[in-house]
Amino acid sequence: MTDFAPSSDLSADLANADLMDRVYRYQRHVYDLTRKYYLLGRDQLIAGLQPPTRGHVLEIGCGTGRNLIAAARAYPRAQFYGVDISQAMLETARVNIARAGLSGRIRLAQGAAADFDASALFGRPVFDRVFFSYALSMIPPWRQALEQGISVLAPGGRLQVVDFGRQERLPRAFKGLLHAWLKRFHVTPRAAMREVLESLAARHDAALEVTPMYRGYAWYGELRA
Hints:
Blueprint: H1 10-24, H2 31-35, H3 42-49, E1 56-60, H4 66-74, E2 79-84, H5 87-99, E3 106-110, H6 118-122, E4 127-133, H7 142-151, E5 153-164, H8 172-183, H9 193-203, E6 207-213, E7 218-224
Parallel strand pairs: 1-2, 1-4, 2-3, 4-5
Antiparallel strand pairs: 5-7, 6-7
């Protein structure tokens, strides 16, 4: 059963859910095949999760379930959870997870990334690992989504992020073409991600590491509570 967490701005959440469903209604069937060529750094994030035995891992903006399946295979003693605002994506994720034989270890729910009730959706308020994989660039209230992520992080847990960077060491022409292509899919690289993560870490007394990848094509951030 799919739940939907109440939001402080329900109209905006519903509008975004409708947009994501329209954008990915057909793309979701080929999403993983096409995105593997330019969503770089996802597997490095999964390799760095290292959840504790019998730990709990949440992906915010889980899409087709690709990352959750890979992580569940890599860490067979952990439990996994995914939340996404797109019902269309969640339908595909459920099929993929069932096909992988992992329905017993991965739970999904529909909800807004910036405002969901983890206890209502999953029966638990906090998680040992929370991660975003190329989701912040698709979430309009992305700063609030990061706040939400740290709010459901267990003591001693880690919030991990990989997404498009500033492409600071790549040719300007390449950067222009990339941004034009991403705009077609309502994807906006968050140039201020480092600064927002630094502010978040300072306010929550957390350690932070931000690493540019592939000459700034992507950034990886890890916040330790």
